[in-house]
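Example (one chain per record):
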Amino acid sequence: MARKLSDVERDAMELPPRERAVLAERLLATLEDGDDGDVEGLWLQEAEKRYADYRAGKITQS
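Predicted structure:
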């Protein structure tokens, strides 16, 4: 039986920030239908920057 979106979302939000970023990257990759340059690399850089800021206490988890 397929899981409800709300259940999947709840479970995903319990992941650590870095794992959520990886999950988001993988989900976005399934939606890509062409080559948009280095979008994947840019998203990864952004996710890593945000995670570093979080670890440094510059931002908090909401």
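Caption: The CA atoms of residues 12 and 23 lie 8 Å apart.
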